[in-house]
Amino acid sequence: MVVLESEVIDPGDLVPRAPVVTVLGHVDHGKTTLLDAIRETRVAEQEAGGITQHIGAYAAEIDGRRIVFLDTPGHEAFTMMRARGASVTDVVVLVVAADDGVMPQTQEAIDHARVADVPILVAINKIDKSDANPERVKQELAERELTPEDWGGQTVMVPVSAKKRDNLDTLLEMILLVTELGEHKANPKRMATGAVLEAKVDRGRGPVATILVQDGTLHVGDNFIVGTHVGRVRALIDDRGQPLKEAEPSSPVEVLGLTGLPQPGDALQVVADAAKARQIALLRQNQAKEKALVSRGTRQQLAEGEAKELPIIIKADVQGSAEVLAESLAKLGDERVKIRIIHTGVGAISEWDVLLASTSNAIIIGFNVRPDRNAAGVAEREGVDIRKHSVIYNVTDELKKAMTGLLEPTTRERQLGLAEVREVFKVPKIGLAAGCIVTDGSITRAGDAQARLVRDGVIVHEGRIGSLRRFKDDVNEVKTGIECGITFERFSDIKTGDVIEAFTVEKVATV
């Protein structure tokens, strides 16, 4: 077994580090406004013009002491990172609106924070509103075992107005007070360890990861391993867009120099030996493949009627459809198989959805939506099952069969190619036609090929191609990189930026 080289750690080298805070709460209670207010008052005042780029985390200062805020999209992402082994948060700030009180997502946020076993500090927001009632909020939270200090409990609650910037300094002081009890320390002299907060492919810079350095100091030139990838730090960029030579504990930084794209929550470890790092990365890649096989085995158990729980992620074109599907599928559970809806959302199936499905061994149901290109690639790599439907009955019928062990895929969709609509023009006697360039595979109208029009990840139309032309010539097929004109049979609502996807539906023999 390959292990990372160990270091001799001197307890005397441990020094206090900045606390790391995640802000959670109901969607309309001012989480984003509060983050923006702290960012503007405690970050922008440090540098004219404020933050020059957003990297998913930033540091604020009060009385010369730093606090790091993680700008996560919500408590689902918070828990997904924990599922990947990243415990990055020291305290959760729960935002509750003084005029609204505890809502379902507030309770969810409380549950997520308790699972993470981190302290909860409450920011009672919108106290400037005429119908604000902080005492009612305290009562509702006390009923959920978050009793305020002024009622004899142990939960710190701070009334604030993010809109008017009231009491923000008090909130920051209370964060420092709460986190002091945890004695958060790190050793800046050791080789760095950290966790991935975000990762993306930048057209000019290649794979870029936002890393929270948790221990040690990360230097330009360090060799590292992160997830299943290796790299050498080519550049470090801080939360204000400034280049750094090194990043100490509790520093959020963009790291350039990766060989691949890690996943949020992956651990970063600096290593002295680049050859050993590559060896470890190869080992982890093999382990990831084994995990994917186990995941597929779990889904095969579903087909054989052996699964006891079926986690589902639902993505739909509109919120109403997502809610109806979630309600319908939840009712299908029985004493043998429990349907668990772990996430619902609107819009194209994203890479984040696929990573969540991979973490929880879930199946993704796409209703009138498609996976984006990144998501499709990650799904194939992770072995995530994505099932696409346009009729609610078909979804429920398929899940019923799955629960009784009768799920036998008889057809499979095979993608032939993708074309991007560059312009739309009128053709006499035909209507609107799409001027396209084929970006992947080939577009064909031969045989049983079908096509769909996708706009912002949502399926607008599905049917057959009416005409396919190169200049004035009718053709049966156009390959990658070639321009062409496309029309649909009996459909012409085409817009610039749409994507045309050609595909066939094949019969698959039962194994």
TrEMBL record:
InterPro entries: EF-G-like_DII (IPR053905), IF2_II (IPR044145), P-loop_NTPase (IPR027417), Small_GTP-bd (IPR005225), T_Tr_GTP-bd_dom (IPR000795), TF_IF2_bacterial-like (IPR000178), TIF_IF2 (IPR015760), TIF_IF2_dom3 (IPR023115). The keyword Transmembrane does not apply. Residues 16-189 form the Tr-type G domain. It comes from the Eukaryota. GO terms for molecular function: GTP binding; GTPase activity; translation initiation factor activity. Pfam families: EF-G_D2 (PF22042), GTP_EFTU (PF00009), IF-2 (PF11987). Gene3D superfamilies: P-loop containing nucleotide triphosphate hydrolases, Translation factors, Translation initiation factor IF- 2, domain 3. Keywords: GTP-binding, Initiation factor, Nucleotide-binding, Protein biosynthesis. The keyword Nucleotide-binding applies. GO terms for cellular component: cytosol. SUPFAM superfamilies: Initiation factor IF2/eIF5b, domain 3, P-loop containing nucleoside triphosphate hydrolases, Translation proteins. One of the essential components for the initiation of protein synthesis. Protects formylmethionyl-tRNA from spontaneous hydrolysis and promotes its binding to the 30S ribosomal subunits. Also involved in the hydrolysis of GTP during the formation of the 70S ribosomal complex. HAMAP family: IF_2_B. Belongs to the TRAFAC class translation factor GTPase superfamily. Classic translation factor GTPase family. IF-2 subfamily. This is Translation initiation factor IF-2, chloroplastic. It comes from Geodia barretti.
